[in-house]
Amino acid sequence: MDVEPSESSPVIAEDDAEPPGLGRTSTHDSSRSSDTRSESPSPLGTIGAHRQLLEGDFWRVIPAYRDVSEATFLDHHWQSQHAVTRVDKLAAALGDLLPLAFFRDVEAGLERAPMSLRISPYIMALIDWRDPYSDPLRKQFMPLSSEQLADHPMVGLDSLHEQHDSPVPGLVHRYPDKALFLALDLCPVYCRFCTRSYSVGVDTDGVSKMHLRAKPERWEMAFEHIRNHEQIEDIVISGGDVHNLRADQIADIGHTLLDIPHVRRMRFATKALAVQPTKFLTDDEWVNAITGVAQRGRKLGKEVVIHTHISHPREITWITQAATRRLYGEGVNIRNQCVLLRGVNDDPNVLKTLVKRLSYINVQPYYVYQHDLVPGVEDLRTTVGTTLAIEKQVRGATAGFNTPTFVVDAPGGGGKRDVHSFEHYDRTTGVSVYRSPNVDENAVYLYFDPIGLLPEEGRRQWADPNQRATIISNAVIAAGHDPEMLPAAWGLPQRRRLPVM
Ligand code: SF4
User: Fold this and answer.
1) Which atom of ligand 1 is nearest to the CA of 271?
2) Are 380 and 434 found together in one domain?
3) Over the range 108-137, which residues count as b (16 or more CB within 10 Å of their CB) and which as e?
4) Which domain holds residue 305?
5) Are residues 137 and 206 in the same domain?
């Protein structure tokens, strides 16, 4: 993995160039004609490239799915039952497509990863197994030991301090009028970069999770907190992923929250549109539960929407479009938030295509996040400088209401800050300083760029553990603040500017 500094020069392809990872060649005939896997894919940036969704029975390129019919592939039970959760299952699904060395690389990667392996057949079928090392979808869900890098010294398992801001287990109440309800700890896939790796998924070699099971007794404690805090108007129902809740659980949570008079807005969070969109086509009971809550909400003058998490344009196929069309037809609005990931979507043309493709299928691009400071995924993080440069390229590519806001979820619990709103950004040490007056007017919050992408001088300073407190203090002082305003959990107050040796 290239770890040379690149924050000042993100890959910017010409408008008529194909961005990495967009084109693939279908090996099977298809009744649907438009396939982005053609040998001569339409150039990105020309009219309509974002409209060319992968069509047909694309899953048949995978040896294990060669004889799988469309009806079977769309069956959400079949998708869940055939999720790849172990390296031997991966090898069995791929047959002889890849050498043994690749599977050993995955196995060694999993030993150091905070998230376990779980990949849906839908995503398995979209990974380009001819070049898995550079494939943007593989990178999100499957760690390779050969790519892993040492963590930044300031990463933490719960980098957003969600547990600190949880008055009851699984209810994060940080902003005055909004609460995040973590209804469960399971997902249809496990993303390597999950912010909630302290809780989501099964235990790994390195992490014993703080489990948040789908239990009505725990939920009732959260509902009671919401009932008792009239300022709360907005609830995000997340986890985990609401994909893994039963239909009756969706209805129970949704209608209970609608019954609370001061709750005005509700968002069901699911990555299923990116990784398991067949759920929306074949699990009618589940879809009806969500649309039923949304339709009752509309009658009550309350907003109920779906928030999803699509990271790369190639995750959107004809199946995704059919899923969003169904939801849109039922009056359910969808917004997307994704993370900027190195080697996945840290390319202006990939993001422009993503934004336009999302808009095309009636999904509003809402947020692009700076990658959180979580362990085990340093190879996926980008610098704030990269994010600034990419945002400049993306803004203006389409209508403003379909242009995402690029944000840093301020480590230490500052909440979401516009990435441009730092009060100081030192590109040598990679430290950016943010404030968040509505969360805590007396605090400063810091983000740290990956050390491997810093200039040599920055890498040299971080290499000396004795200089870390100084680097941090100097950044806070340069922003015009007192280092004692740092979150106490970091334990790094320094009142005076100290010389960097
Ligand atoms: S779907 Fe969301 S909650 Fe689940 S592993 Fe991925 S990022 Fe984490």
Assistant:
1) 1
2) no
3) bbbeebbbbbbbbbbbbbbbbbeebeebbb
4) 1-20+151-415
5) no
Q: Which of 397, 415, 433 is the last residue of a domain?
A: 415
Q: What are 403's two structure tokens?
A: 């242009």
Asked if residue 387 is part of any domain, the answer here is yes
What's the pLDDT at 385? 98
- Our count of domains for the chain comes to 3
Query: Does residue 432 sit in the same domain as residue 494?
Result: yes
Protein residues whose CB sits closer than 6 Å to any atom of ligand 1: 187, 190-191, 194, 196, 200, 239-241, 271
Question: If you ran DSSP here, which 8-state letter would residue 244 be given?
Answer: G
Ligand 1 centroid, distance to 197 Cα (angstroms): 8
Could you check whether the bond before residue 56 is cis, i.e. omega within 30 degrees of 0? no
Is 68:60 a contact under the CB 8 Å cutoff?
Answer: yes
pLDDT computed for residue 156 by the predictor: 84
Long-range contacts from 215-224, C-beta under 8 angstroms, 24+ separation = 216/252, 218/168, 218/169, 218/170, 219/181, 219/183, 219/252, 219/253, 219/256, 221/168, 221/169, 221/171, 222/168, 222/170, 222/171, 222/179, 222/181, 223/256, 223/257, 223/260, 224/168
Which of 106, 141, 176 terminates a domain? The answer is 141
CA of 191 to the centre of ligand 1 (A): 6
Assess if residue 465 is contained within a domain.
yes
Our CA angle for 336, 235, 215, nearest 5°, is 105
Shared-domain flag, residues 339 and 441: no
284 plus 155 within the same structural domain:
yes
For ligand 1, atom 6, the nearest C-alpha belongs to 191
Decide if 397 is inside a domain: yes
Token readout for 165 is 């801001």
Question: Over the chain, what is the mean pLDDT?
Answer: 89
Examine the domain organization and report whether 391 and 458 are in the same domain. Answer: no
Query: Of how many residues is the chain composed?
Result: 501
In a domain, 40, yes or no: no
DSSP character for 153? T
State the Cα–Cα distance between residues 419 and 210, nearest whole angstrom: 30
Say if residue 69 is in the same domain as residue 108. Answer: yes
Residue 278's identity, in one-letter code, is: T
pTM of the model: 0.89
Task: Give the nearest ligand 1 atom to 188 CA.
Answer: 1
Most informative mutation of 194, 195, 367, 369 for ligand 1 (most atoms within 8 A of CB): 194
Do both 352 and 368 map to the same domain?
yes
CA dihedral 130, 131, 136, 139 (to 10 degrees): 110
Q: For residue 190, report the distance from its CA to the centre of ligand 1, in Å.
A: 6
Task: Give the CA distances from residue 481 to residues 164, 455, 491, in Å, rounded to whole numbers and listed in that order.
Answer: 24, 25, 16
Q: What is the pLDDT of residue 450?
A: 98
Query: How remote is the CA of residue 187 from the centroid of ligand 1, in Å?
Result: 6
**Structure confidence by residue, pLDDT tens digits, 393-425:** 999 999 999 999 999 999 988 899 999 999 999
Q: Which atom of ligand 1 is nearest to the CA of 201?
A: 5
